[in-house]
Amino acid sequence: MSLKLVILGVLDHKNVHPYDVKRFLKHYKWDYLFQISDAKIYYAFESLQKGGFVRVDQVVENEKTPTKTVYAITEKGRDQIKKELYKIFKKDVLSYKAIYPALLFVDYAEKDLLLSFLDERKEKVKKRARFKPRTSCRYRHEST
């Protein structure tokens, strides 16, 4: 699953600080889907900002806490949500870890196209299952 997709999806609903994304993932109990560290989240925000997908909305300064940078999504970032979704659904991967969180953002994409990607995956799985060589049972009784 793309951490960038989650960040963009969250930002499309609310301007947030990177730590808020971590709280979002924990709230939905998705932190097990990613190896999430603060460094990864901050790096993803930095990468998205360099790509023009997010921008700094405001910098909140407070004497008692460190400076807090709040980000907002750009139009380019909204377009990227759809691209990230298509990338996840097109991948030839059987992992639920990629698909489950992406389902939260399917409203950003053309559902018929996503369904066609899933149908392609299903057919590939069927083919693999048909041609997978059977393994012999370890405990098979040998006749003498």
From TrEMBL:
Residues 7-82 form the Transcription regulator PadR N-terminal domain. InterPro entries: Tscrpt_reg_PadR_N, WH-like_DNA-bd_sf, WH_DNA-bd_sf. This is PadR family transcriptional regulator. It comes from Listeria floridensis FSL S10-1187.
